[in-house]
Amino acid sequence: MAEIKPFKGMRFDTDKAGELKTLCCPPYDIISEDERKAFIAENPYNVIRLELPREGEDVYAHAGEVLDRWRDKGVLLHEDRPAVYVYEMEFNAYNTRKSVKGFIARVKVEPFSKGVILPHEFTLSKAKTDRFNLMKATNCNFSQIYALYMDSDHTTLQTIDAQSQGDADYQFTDDDRITHRLWIITDEAVIAKICADFTDRKLYIADGHHRYETALNYRDYCRENGISKEGDAQDYQMMYLVDMEHPGLVVFPTHRMVRDLASFSKHNVLAGCQEYFEIEKYTSVGNMNTLLGEKYRAGKKAFAFYCGKGEWYLLTLRDLAVMDAVLPELSPASRQLDVSVLHTLVLEKTMGIDKENMANQINLTYTKFFEEAILGVDKGQFQCSFILNPTRVTEIRDVAAAGEKMPQKSTYFYPKMITGMVMNDIGVN
Fold first, then answer.
1. Are 129 and 241 in a shared domain?
2. How far is CA 18 from CA 72, 173, 242, in A?
């Protein structure tokens, strides 16, 4: 089903541009303006100037001009032969050193309706417009879409493991103590085997929904304007593909913080929750994650309602059947998500925060940081917060397979892929 191809990746010539660590950056959508400026101050060739342009009257056109200059000067070079790129991230999570390994290749983009590449989350139009304008100006992917695939025998993982036993071609450790390693694989037989593995596989987007939908729009734009035809490089986008059962996969929860809600009352919230939840009161957050973890391992739907100064309530859903009644139009996979329970029974039904409000973040702020969700309430910036357990990878698969999408900010795959180790110049076949 999924069509995978090698490509002549575009990479920095570190002899001309400097150390790779100073050339790469985190994903564009988590970088502040001060951080962006700091990257450029450290190295003017940092990829952030292409991925998150802010220079010139037309920032996108300026990014295209910078890209042309860097290619002309040899700061950016293309692989001599088509390659796939084994990419490993080693990182700390849950007090353990972990690593996740997959590979980067071109993947043929298909409409979601074909059931070959499946989304799991809703997206915002503003971000898609930004990415589309950048692609029109540069005809490049500077960062990868992150996707998962099912492989019960782990045949592809075994292949890429065998190809990455020696020292990586490129390696560095960033300021978050994440070590990034890249192996360049050009062996035609190995590449052919990896590509053939995906003949009967679907892909599940883990991160990069905006970029994937933009890729579809860009492909259509290029065809409609005579820039490309079916089968050209515009039909393919750079993706990072990881075995869905990889032991290093980590999904963090995204917590909800409530602000500026008229007539907010914790007593009203608790009163509204009594119908559906068992409620236990605590006066210290020290045991919050432990108790939530116990509920998670037991398969319970539970989250913490934090009110400030250590006071919080463990809300555990009594009967999952209530979700069948309130969300009959959705599949069991969607109805049974922790975020579905929270959004439907608490935020909407009890607190009056509807779906449009959530999508526009009128009364909600999202964070992956536990400390921020607690301190924000303690400092009076937020009225309360809800601390969640992480979404399971199997839940992501099941929702996508049902043709449905989770609410925004349902998942946070960690760590985020670095931008700049290898890029996809769509103008190069």
1. yes
2. 17, 15, 30
